[in-house]
User: Which sequence fits this backbone?
């Protein structure tokens, strides 16, 4: 296997060439849509219509007065899975979506939970999910980064870093995909040297590095830096092309919508189409302590059409079958009013129960997985912890999460630490 301890030496200094997983995976690419801020699960994907009868009562179980769901749900698709009215476009693809209603995490603090969802650790500096994916599989396109983060949020580079993995596996941040293509990635073209001159410089640098390795030792940091130079050289032509959404037919651009998140979604599709292994799309602003109805409706309108378009576009191109889409936030929100007693119609942070969904890439769509209590306060069936979600994603990519390891500081590390179980009910 290419990612066991016996292969670390080869992988540490290798290129990002495609690698074989532990077993044939159903997903070859991942688009991770991160809804930072903590979306309210009972207003989005976990309907609780029975809460209305408790609206004027103090319920000790939830620590205050219930705030019933602010939106109606309706059964959608052939599967009949219930979808909130704020997601009409995403709901059209519900038969391809597995809604996880039983997510849980430890501490409902934005920074901790965000880093936890992205790296499997809320405290120590650990490699991100995208970095582990790239470490295990490599990437299909050597002219583009194998892991790209579109946008960003709380925690910054901690969420897409490679940490103790070789630097080649770190995510590349692209902040503004709506900018002109030659401005999206700063300093991508040299104003001082032609491409042939740059090629000569890089060849000399590589030769000197090999001499250094033969006479002294091979240094991972130096190798990663040279590999970064090589990638930057190759990106000068292909990167500006892949981020140029004006090359898409007008009908496709209209389908996604002319918005920042719409541009990110269409670029995400173009990136995986070009062979990029892992794309993270940041879609935040879900921290609704006040006016949850109005704020959530606005945020949902921002993402619903672009995500619905992404699902349809991938399906029409026959790409959904091997592209895994993951939508999640870092936690959910309380089923009670934000300030405990009936008052401000907002919701506080809540980690005991929240929702995520997955589609494509071998996922068994058209289902709601897991059950919470009548208030959506706690999980009562098929609990999915963050490590379980990561184990399931790695399984779809073809990895045994317990064997995808990297030796560092005298021990073997993995994304799921010493935890994690594959949620097999989510797999087709």
Assistant:
């Amino acid at each position: 296997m290419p990612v066991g301890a016996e292969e670390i030496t080869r992988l540490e200094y290798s290129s990002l060439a495609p690698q074989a997983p532990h077993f044939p995976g159903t997903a070859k690419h991942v688009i991770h849509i991160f809804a930072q801020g903590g979306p309210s699960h009972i207003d989005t994907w976990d309907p609780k219509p029975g809460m209305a009868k408790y609206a004027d009562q103090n319920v000790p179980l939830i620590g205050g007065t219930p705030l019933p769901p602010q939106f109606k749900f309706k059964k959608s698709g052939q599967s009949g899975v219930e979808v909130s009215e704020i997601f009409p476009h995403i709901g059209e693809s519900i038969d391809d979506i597995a809604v996880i209603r039983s997510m849980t995490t430890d501490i409902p603090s934005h920074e901790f939970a965000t880093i936890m969802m992205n790296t499997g650790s809320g405290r120590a500096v650990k490699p991100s999910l995208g970095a582990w994916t790239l470490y295990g599989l490599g990437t299909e396109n050597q002219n583009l980064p194998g892991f790209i983060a579109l946008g960003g949020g709380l925690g910054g580079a901690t969420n897409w870093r490679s940490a103790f993995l070789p630097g080649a596996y770190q995510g590349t941040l692209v902040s503004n995909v709506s900018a002109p293509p030659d401005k999206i990635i700063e300093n991508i073209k040299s104003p001082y040297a032609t491409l042939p001159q740059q090629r000569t410089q890089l060849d000399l640098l590589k030769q000197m590095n090999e001499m250094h390795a033969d006479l002294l030792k091979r240094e991972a940091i130096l190798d990663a830096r040279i590999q970064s130079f090589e990638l930057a050289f190759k990106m000068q032509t292909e990167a500006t092309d892949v981020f140029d959404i004006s090359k898409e037919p007008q009908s496709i651009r209209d389908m996604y919508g002319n918005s920042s998140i719409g541009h990110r979604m269409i670029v995400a599709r173009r990136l995986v189409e070009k062979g990029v292994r892992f794309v993270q799309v940041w879609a935040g602003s879900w921290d609704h302590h006040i006016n949850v109805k109005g704020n959530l409706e606005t945020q949902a309108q921002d993402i619903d059409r672009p995500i619905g378009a992404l699902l349809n576009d991938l399906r029409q191109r026959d790409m959904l079958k091997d592209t895994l889409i993951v939508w999640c936030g870092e936690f959910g929100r309380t089923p009670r009013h934000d300030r405990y007693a009936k008052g401000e119609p907002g919701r506080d942070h809540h980690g005991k129960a929240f929702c995520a969904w997955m589609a494509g890439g071998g996922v068994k769509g058209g289902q709601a997985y897991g059950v919470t209590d009548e208030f959506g306060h706690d999980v009562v069936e098929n609990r999915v912890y963050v490590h379980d979600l990561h184990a399931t994603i790695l399984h779809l990519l073809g990895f045994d999460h317990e064997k995808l390891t990297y030796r560092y500081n005298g021990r073997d590390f993995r994304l799921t630490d010493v935890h994690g179980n594959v949620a097999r009910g989510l797999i087709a």
Summary: The domain at 5-185+243-426 is CATH 3.40.720.10 (Alkaline Phosphatase, subunit A).
